[in-house]
């Protein structure tokens, strides 16, 4: 299983998992053109995309859904509540044959994979994160949450790869130029995960199995990639876990876990 960070940040989010035959996208926050270009740049076949799993309805996660609905035959994984609000935002209707209904807490079997949505504390209608399991490989994409919960930690255990939000440094956010209501929203318990909260969650779920961690959804105004790297590296000190930072504009591809393990 390959993982690709196609885009991550407040301007658009999209992650991909590919087993060589099929690709699942997590979120659709960048254009269809960019999805295809970035997959091709990484040596992945855009024609292998079969479905898009939608975490919630904020624009940086669903911006391309309308175009994808018109110009592809991809299916959409979403809870009924998220599907309804996405349809209202885009003035579209996702037909039944292209909708894979999801419900937080209940896994769905898809093309031999197990896709398990779980609830996040975020200011959206029915926000979820996704845990993906296939062929003994376990991964999760966990972004857009205001604080780490016991439920989230439970779903982040026994993973080979964890994509985890490190949105902001609290002091940078408080001292920055954002208007007070936006600062309050980000800092709330249904906002975004700070570097300190990220470190707390990461420390709680570390295990010898976790070989790869990707820091995601970094704020360009309220965080510093090097600071994120330092904070995460302090948690990972002594563990044989590789650390990567996802970017807004630069896609990257990670090797399958067996290859990563052999490189250590």
Structural commentary:
The chain has helices at 32-41, 59-62, 65-71, 80-90, 150-155, 170-175, 180-187, 195-205, 225-236, 257-263; strands at 2-7, 14-18, 23-26, 49-53, 75-78, 99-101, 108-110, 113-119, 128-134, 137-142, 161-165, 212-216, 242-245, 252-254. The chain has 264 residues and is α/β, with parallel strands linked by helices. The strands form 2 sheets. Strands 6-5-4-3-2-1-14 form a 7-stranded mixed β-sheet. A 7-stranded mixed β-sheet has the order 7-8-9-10-11-12-13. Helix 4 links the parallel strand 5 and strand 6 (99-101). Helix 8 (195-205) packs parallel to helix 9 (225-236). The longest helix has 12 residues, at 225-236.
CATH architecture heading: 4-Layer Sandwich
Give the CATH H-level superfamily.
Ribonuclease Z/Hydroxyacylglutathione hydrolase-like
* Strands side by side in the biggest sheet: 6-5-4-3-2-1-14
How much β-strand is present in the residues?
25-35%
Q: Provide the domain count.
A: 1
Kindly list the characteristics that best describe this protein.
disordered C terminus; 264 residues; 25% strand; Metallo-beta-lactamase, Chain A; seven-stranded mixed beta sheet; 10 helices; alpha/beta
In short:
By secondary structure, the chain is an alpha/beta fold. 31% of the residues lie in helices and 25% in strands. The strands form two sheets. A seven-stranded mixed β-sheet has the order 6-5-4-3-2-1-14. Strands 7-8-9-10-11-12-13 form a seven-stranded mixed β-sheet.
SSE layout:
Elements: E1 2-7, E2 14-18, E3 23-26, H1 32-41, E4 49-53, H2 59-62, H3 65-71, E5 75-78, H4 80-90, E6 99-101, E7 108-110, E8 113-119, E9 128-134, E10 137-142, H5 150-155, E11 161-165, H6 170-175, H7 180-187, H8 195-205, E12 212-216, H9 225-236, E13 242-245, E14 252-254, H10 257-263
Parallel strand pairs: 3-4, 4-5, 5-6, 10-11, 11-12, 12-13
Antiparallel strand pairs: 1-2, 1-14, 2-3, 7-8, 8-9, 9-10
């Amino acid at each position: 299983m390959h993982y690709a960070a196609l885009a991550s940040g407040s301007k658009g989010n999209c992650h991909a998992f590919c087993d060589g035959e099929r690709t699942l996208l997590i979120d659709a926050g960048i254009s269809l053109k960019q999805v295809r270009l970035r997959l091709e740049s990484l040596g992945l076949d855009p024609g292998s995309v079969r479905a898009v799993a939608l975490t919630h309805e904020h624009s940086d996660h669903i911006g391309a859904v309308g175009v994808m609905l018109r110009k592809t035959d991809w299916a959409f994984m979403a809870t009924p509540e998220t599907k309804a609000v996405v349809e209202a935002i885009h003035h579209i209707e996702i037909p039944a044959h292209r909708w894979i209904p999801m419900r937080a807490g209940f896994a769905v079997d898809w093309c031999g994979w197990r896709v398990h949505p779980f609830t996040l504390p975020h200011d959206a209608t029915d926000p979820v994160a996704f845990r993906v399991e296939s062929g003994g490989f376990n991964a999760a994409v966990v972004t857009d949450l205001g604080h780490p919960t016991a439920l989230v930690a439970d779903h982040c255990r026994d993973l080979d790869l964890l994509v985890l939000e490190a949105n902001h440094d609290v002091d940078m956010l408080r001292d920055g130029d954002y208007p007070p209501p936006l600062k309050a929203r980000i800092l709330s318990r249904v906002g975004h995960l700070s570097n300190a909260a990220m470190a707390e969650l990461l420390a709680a779920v570390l295990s010898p199995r976790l070989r790869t961690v990707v820091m995601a959804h970094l704020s360009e105004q309220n965080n510093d990639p090097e600071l994120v790297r330092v904070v995460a590296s302090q948690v990972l000190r002594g563990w044989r876990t590789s650390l990567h930072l996802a970017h807004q504009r630069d896609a990257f591809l990670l090797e399958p876990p067996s290859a990563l393990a052999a490189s250590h």
